[in-house]
């Protein structure tokens, strides 16, 4: 299952790389002030894992459930950008700048956040930053670079191939999620109904943290809110199993993977509805 998830993410990252203007991505970095980057750091790496621990204690989740929810909160930057969202006011270049920034911060912030979270439970967890850097380079930067190189040297091929790869990547991801549901359906029916509730609150809280803390224009708030709710399920699975040794956290992370897209698309639809109402009122 992990290989299928990684394959779908790889395809999407190549597709994203084909459609990006890296001059615009770099321009986004320069336009955002340092205090907004600091606020985005809080919204991305501090508030979601803190909220996960609060929810775990409030709902009295078990150790594996707490670990799974916490790792979802600690692992940002899932590269799942779709054309449908980009057509609804979602800025792919800002999202890409966020993606690159989050990937660069992951080897620094995740070991610190996991270590601090473990100390709250009198546990010592340390994740070697170099192992996370290796994961980020191979799973995110490499396919992004491949897509960018295809676009640079074979622009006509990229223009024809990019929409098809984007559609195929997203369909493949849906296929993976369907398999995931069929495999964990019986488990999800047996767990506490508070786990899905905690996942919904975490996704909504991630959107809210980015919207409230980042003082930028409305498109930036929409984009960063969506990106922040789109936590990195694959990375969370890796850390929970390989470093925290909570293999039973899988179903909580999978639960978030199933719930987050509904929260993201619901948020985008609500945003569009408000925009339409505002435009209509202004006429």
Order of SSEs, N→C?
A: HHHHHHHHHHHH
**Count of DSSP H/I helices:** 12
| N-to-C CA distance | 51 Å
CATH topology: Na+/H+ antiporter like fold
CATH class: Mainly Alpha
Low-pLDDT stretches: 278-283
Number of strands: 0
Q: Report the major sheet.
A: none
The appropriate CATH architecture is Up-down Bundle
Structural class: mainly alpha
Identify the overall geometry.
globular
Determine Rg (CA atoms, Å): 18 Å
Total domain modules: 1
Mean pLDDT: 78
Helix content: over 70%
Strand content: under 5%
Question: What is the topology?
Answer:
Blueprint: H1 2-18, H2 22-31, H3 34-58, H4 63-74, H5 83-86, H6 92-120, H7 129-153, H8 155-190, H9 194-213, H10 218-229, H11 233-242, H12 250-282
Helix pairs in contact: 1-7, 1-8, 2-6, 3-4, 3-6, 3-9, 4-11, 4-12, 6-7, 6-10, 7-8, 8-12, 9-10, 9-12, 11-12
Provide structural commentary.
The protein is mostly helical and 283 residues long. The chain has a single domain, classed as Na+/H+ antiporter like fold (Up-down Bundle), CATH 1.20.1530.20. The longest helix is centred in the middle third of the chain and has 36 residues. The C terminus is likely disordered.
